[in-house]
User: Fold this.
Amino acid sequence: MSKVYKSLIQFAKTIRGKKLYELKIFGIQIYLITTTYKSHYNVFLFYLPILKIEKDRNRFAINILPFVWLYKFITGWRLVFLEKGFKITFLNRTVFEDVIVEPYKFPAACFKD
Assistant:
């Protein structure tokens, strides 16, 4: 169990990145700036990721992550109409599917009367 726990901790540290700057007051993290690659920086405010900064020779981009999450939440929904019913998907995963199945005509099995 401890090996799994240690590997999860190491995985989380790898995702978060290497600490560059950090401000803590009374043990509470106010902000943290980390780097994952030489040109990628992440800014955390009160333990939440707020900004993702990509700085390269030809490109400079700042992603405000709460707006990115909101955009994905709004545009991720799809309503698909099927021959018999409909389904609602979110980020290509089915959330709700309303399909009318006739008794004894299941797609996976055939029952004989």
Observations:
- DSSP finds two helices and eight strands in the chain.
